[in-house]
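Students often ask what a 'structure token' actually looks like in practice. Rather than answer in the abstract, let us consider Holocytochrome c-type synthase, a protein of 340 residues. Its sequence is given first.
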Amino acid sequence: MGWFWADSAPAAPVAPHPMPRGDATPPPSCPMHNKLPHRPSKASTPDAVPAGACPYVPPDSSTSAAPPQQGLLSRLNPLNNMPFDLSNKRETPHQTHDLPLTREPSTIPKGDGSLWEYPSPQQMYNAMLRKGYTDTPADAVESMVAVHNFLNEGAWAEIVGWERRFARGLVEGYRVCKRGEENANIALGMQDPLDTRWTEKNIPAPKLLRFTGRPGEATPKSQMLQLLGWAWPSKFGTPPPFDRHDWFVQRCDAAGNCEEVRYVIDYYEGEPEPTGEPVFYLDVRPAIDGPRAAAERLVRWGTDTWWTASGGVVREVRKAEEARKKAEEERERTMRKYNS
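Now compare that with the structural description of the same chain:
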């Protein structure tokens, strides 16, 4: 999930996980296999390597500069941890199905204001081959790309929902959230919770700066849910998430001050529809990197739980019923006065 593409080359490539490197063992004829009685001095080092000798010459640490990085890490884009040189054409003769080469733009803004682009089906297939998924049927890749793009759009919609609530601070976030999720969406003017349009006039829209996939690292929340599922399978039993992402989002205030907020996303697969269509669930929330993120999660989830447990919905229904009766009584009085 989350294989966007970024086109600009970084100044200092990095990757979140150690990457395997090739076998750096020198050939047996190299002198580094033999223990030397002493390190040869600079003066005794020959100016040229004799013909037929081992090409390895130990560098002089006092004068030699570190060679430029030429490994796998130098070819990875730090914005998405994917290779810069991943081609958009067939890389294997075993591919039996022609795949589209067009790339679909997302609705997710990058740090420079442009939009992230999703990989083409051919790029997705090439990426899966490089990751070792050689048993993937080529004719299924287009459907996989469609699901991949849909999930990323849903994840961004969830993030925008968090930003709408808390971009103006915790106090404003509490004011929006205190009457539960449904009323919060009404207060924010969100008829569709998946609408990613940014309507705040005085606050810049959030941007996705970079992201990384961490499928092998379970989040603390998912681990707790698995423990609860083991203890109470009838209530909390659910398979573990099949993927996990960290998205780094730029949040700015009305004064133009910006900060980076890390969001954690767990991807769950649910029971398929009767028609066979797959069902997915996303758990999107700010990572607890500080007190503010913890407070945001407490405010949003705590107020919704309290509103429901304390009968907030019942109170809203009762108020609406009283207002309706009052309006009817006023209308009847008006009609009697008019008829008399």
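One point worth highlighting: The two ends are 72 Å apart (CA to CA). Ask yourself how you might have guessed this from the sequence alone, and why that guess would often be unreliable.
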